[in-house]
Design goal:
140 residues; mainly beta; Jelly Rolls; five-stranded antiparallel sheet; 1 helix; RmlC-like_jellyroll; Cupin_2
Length: 140
């Protein structure tokens, strides 16, 4: 049975938290959904949206995390997962297995996704390139 003493109830409305810069990537904005605080760092849930046109993308990296999903809410993003190009469109859900090497290299101006990761203080580790990356689509 779930031990409810280790987590708290949380209800965050759209007006409760703002999108802010200063997250993992400077070309994205992040909106905290209160889950990291409610779970005492077990899980983080935040909204991520495009802030600037893609120029270089995220670079090749992996996360030291036990669990990670991305649910695309608006727009689209193109990832390389290992050597496989993957288009993630609104409505899609991606489970990124622990340690998978990936590179987000292109996205639409209206891209917005929900990301849920455990633990909340997961680490991002740069890795050697797996393969060549296609050029991003210029924004008009």
């Amino acid at each position: 049975m779930l031990d409810r003493t280790k987590t708290t109830f949380s209800h965050v409305k759209p007006t409760d938290t703002d999108y802010v810069s200063g997250g993992l990537r400077d070309f994205f904005l992040y909106r905290d959904l209160g889950v990291a605080e409610a779970t005492h760092g077990k899980v983080i849930a935040h909204l991520v949206k495009a802030n600037m046109a893609p120029e270089k993308g995220t670079g090749w990296h992996r996360h030291e995390a036990e669990f990670q999903i991305v649910i695309m809410l608006k727009g689209w993003a193109k990832f390389m997962y290992e050597d496989q190009e993957t288009l993630v469109s609104a409505g899609d859900c991606v489970h990124q297995r622990p340690g998978i090497r990936h590179f987000l290299f292109d996205y639409s101006p209206d891209m917005e996704y929900l990301e849920i990761v455990s633990p909340a203080d997961f680490k991002t580790v740069d890795v050697e390139p797996v393969c060549a990356i296609p050029d991003p689509t210029p924004w008009k």
